[in-house]
Each structure stands twice: as C-alpha cells, then as structure tokens.
Fold:
Amino acid sequence: MMATAVDLAVKNLKTIFRDRVYLFFLIGMPIFMMLLIGLAFRGGTATYNVGYVNYDGGPSSRYFINILDNASALPLPPNAPLKDVLTMIQFNNTDSLENAFRQGNIVAGLIMDEGYSPATANETVTLFVDESTISASIAVKSTVATISSILAGDPLPKEYWKQLDKPISVEFNTLNFMVVGTLTYAVSIIVFSATASIARERDKGLFSRLRTTPMSIKDFFAGGLMSQLVISLVQTISVFAVSYLIGFRPMGVTGMDKAVNMMAAFVVAMILSVACVGLGLAIAAFAKNEDQAVGISWFVIIPMMFLSGTWFEPQDPTMKTISWAFPTTYANKAIRAILVRGTPLLDTSNYLVSLAVYAVIIFIVGVAIFRKKTM
Structure:
C-alpha cells in the first residue's frame, strides 16, 4: 500500500513539474508577495505630509514649523534623536488646508493662531489628524507632542493643543479606512471573474461559433460588461450592508449628506469595475487557457491590493509612484475622500476623471488586444 502511495505521489509531482506555467504560479506567487511587501515598506522611516497655516508669522512659530520639518536638527542627546518623519506643507488659509485634508493630500493639519509661544501652545495651536490611518496618526501626534513639550520645557510629551472648532470628520476610525479597502478589493476581483469567464468561453470555441450567428462581437463584449457591472453593484451593496451592521458610518452631517456620499461611492465603484473588465480582457487575450488566465489575473490583483492603498499605504516613494498605474489607487483615494472625509463628489474630480479615462482606455485596449489575439 505504501509503495502505491509513493508511486502516486511521484506521478503527481511529475505532472506538476511538467506544467511549467502552473509550477511558476505555485512557487512564484509566495515569492512575488514577499517581494511586494518588501518593496512597499522598504526605504527606512516613512514620512507624512502635514499641512499648516501660520497666522502668527513670528520667529517662535516659524522655528516650531522648521523643527517639525527637520526634527533631527533639534539638539538632543545622541542616544535619543528625533527622526524626520513629517514634511510640512504651507497653506494660505484654513479652508484650503481643510480641503487638502479631505482629499487625502495631507494626513494632518496644523493651525497656528496669532500670539503663539511654546508656553501657550495649548491656546494657540490646533491639530487635527486622520485617525483612520493608524501609523500616520501615531507618528504625527507623537512628533508634534514631543517637540511642543521640548520647546515648552516640559519633561514629558503632552498632547496639549486646541480642538478644531468645526470637526472635519464625524467618525474617524480604522473601520472606515478598512471598509473602503474591502470595497475596492471586492470590485477588483472582477479582473479574475472577467478573465476566467472570457478564457472559458474561448476554450469552448464560442468566438468561432459567433461568426455563424447574428450576434456580433460587440454584443458579446457589451453583454459581458453589463453582467460584470451588475456583479459589482451587488458586491458594493453587500459590503456596505455588512459594514453598516458592524459600525461603519459614512461621513455626513445629515442623513441626506450620508445618502449622497454613499451614491457617489457607488459611482466610483462602477467606473472601477469597467477598468477591471478591461484588464480582464487584456489578460485573457495573452493567456493560452483558462488556468493560465486565472493565474495571471492574480499576479495583477495582488500588486493592486498591496500598492494602491487598499489596506495600507506603501511607504517607499518609488512604489507610491508605481501605484498610480493601478485603477484602484484612484478609486481608493476618491471613495475615502467622499466617505471618510466628507469631500463633495465634484471636489474629487481629479481622481474621478483620471479613473474614468483609465477605464475607457483600458477597456478599448483590452477589446482590441483580445480581438487581435483571438478573432
């Protein structure tokens, strides 16, 4: 019996090793994921963009901002130096500062009133932070508190700053951040679904038989796109329904505000689904069969999840630049701005237009590649 089992094991291993494509995915996938993790988080200490408005303009307030931007320059014992983790960006007024914060261009905002001094920071400095991004929240708060305390002569860091008069966010928490990532992940699975479905139909000879029927290839692609849009709609509704039950609440002062923001998020999800179908078409065109199509699709989906801010923001500058090659980057930034920070839909037009153009181009390119390779 043992000899038979060994023979079967050897036979199975030979089958696996003969299928080079399958072997590549089997061994290459974990290596690929480890490389992505390493590349996303390499580069040492992460830096965070913090906007500020300095209504004081005096030497003390300018020095405070300069030290926040260059914390390592603060004279401290060699065994306890501060790291340069904040990049300070100046704004002319509070409105422009808050707008940049809502769109996700900065992770925190600092407002310095007239009459600032290190001893009166609790009366003249306002700090607000994106609590949904845990690493940024901790880094910004601890750095500002430590430097404020050192300049004031306090022995220990203290969080002593004013609260924002009109809070920007109704509920800032990690759940809000994760819900948006889960939503874009769910929609991104359409890349896999579309790739597998199209490759399966091709393997069955559907496209050869289309030539003998009144149905055109345009009808097939239009029908496929509509079906995937329906799936995306169901996914979006399901994610929001479950997340609402476990505590997620979209940004909005009134019920109408929240409803409008939810509808805006649906719009972004639908545009993202078109882009994902286009990617699926291109992948299916290059794959020789359904199995290869499925494997290649995951080699596209995984980088999208790791690099586009789905569940965490990449820290390496090069990886941040590469992330703009994925449609999920635009979708994540747009939906988080709308649902987590309450940004009006039109104020996210830079992300929406980019995502829409991406979706149209990748869908047209996907159709063209598929027709050339298959028809």
Summary: The chain has a mean pLDDT of 79. The chain has two domains: 48-152, 174-374.
